[in-house]
Amino acid sequence: MPRDTDRLTALAATHNGxxxxxxxxxxxxxxxxxxxxxxxxxxxxxxxxxxxTFPQELT
Length: 59
Fold this sequence. Notes:
The chain is an alpha+beta fold and 59 residues long. It is built from three helices and three strands. The N and C termini lie far apart (35 Å).
């Protein structure tokens, strides 16, 4: 399945920047791609299987 980052971005916008791993995988994005985003401090892991698609501190 090709990676649909436009769909991923739109989905994140409707969830205040939070996505579940299930939603991410449904957009054709791999777990390793998500891990790289977290390692590069572009995203952050909120809970197991939940990611914030922004680097700012959570409130």
